[in-house]
Specification:
single chain; mainly beta; OB fold (Dihydrolipoamide Acetyltransferase, E2P); 4 helices; about 10% helix
Length: about 325
Amino acid sequence: MSDGDRPSGAGAPGRESRPDPLRDPFFLRLQAYEGLPAAVGGSGKDPVNAPMIRHWCEAMGDTDPAYRGPDAVAPPTMLQAWTMGGLSGHTDRSGAYDELSGLLDEAGYTSVVATDCEQEYLRPLRPGDAITFDAVIESVSPRKTTKLGTGHFVTTRMDVKAGGELAGTHRFRILKYTPAARPEKPQQPQQPQQPAERPRRPRPVVNRDNAGFWAGVAEHRLLIQRCAACATLRFPWLPGCNTCGSREWDTVEASGEGTVYSYVVMHHPPFPAFDPPYAVGLVELAEGVRMISNVVGVPYDKVRIGMPVRLEFLAVDEELELPVFRAGGED
């Protein structure tokens, strides 16, 4: 019998047949979860509401008028936000998804990374809409090898309803995987130890859109862009006005007065040239725009929202000065 006449599936002498991943017993166990519910009869913790829409738009910098006023709709990309359970989670989650995740953990696929999501919008969501949702384990892939490691992709589909009417579909995909082994670095011959130098702060990225700002910093001036068409102030610097779209602009110099609008205290991860913990503030300038910088002059745990601050310029090394904000004193 020639190789061409050999029955399908038979291996030629000296040639190793490759296993079919679709017949792998473990994969067949995983595949049995396809179609099972991941959440049943879930309810959004809050109806669609204007404050959440406002917070979302402020965070995204989205000034579309469709999201404001008495006829406002929610940004379509908020679809999943209305279903989230927050820190306390949901009580209506199905056990099937947890079982599947546990099965993967037991097999050594203990790491997880979100890979992508897909959304389909069927109707706009408006303030007052009550949100319900159901989710299903849509698919589990055969074992795949990626640069991160080897594992299985798990896709869930969530159907989001408003007032019982399907409003959109959200597909979310993760990879549960075993991390790939890192190649060992070749040992380098030991060099005589030199006195340790303090790491330099990262350099800011200066380009044609923000070069004027950094030129102002070099002169100890904090410059804010002003639209030449509608006079709207904007910060950080942008090539065009996000209010009217004009590309024409000039600048005004900030007075240097401001207040802490919000802040975080950085503890981790430690980074060369930085000495945590330290406070990073979102400072609202007297001119109305906000910028992010360090808050200095008080201990990190004394920074407070509403605290008055004053601009100063900090020489972090012989080449770099940065604008920071000094608080007046401790509480």
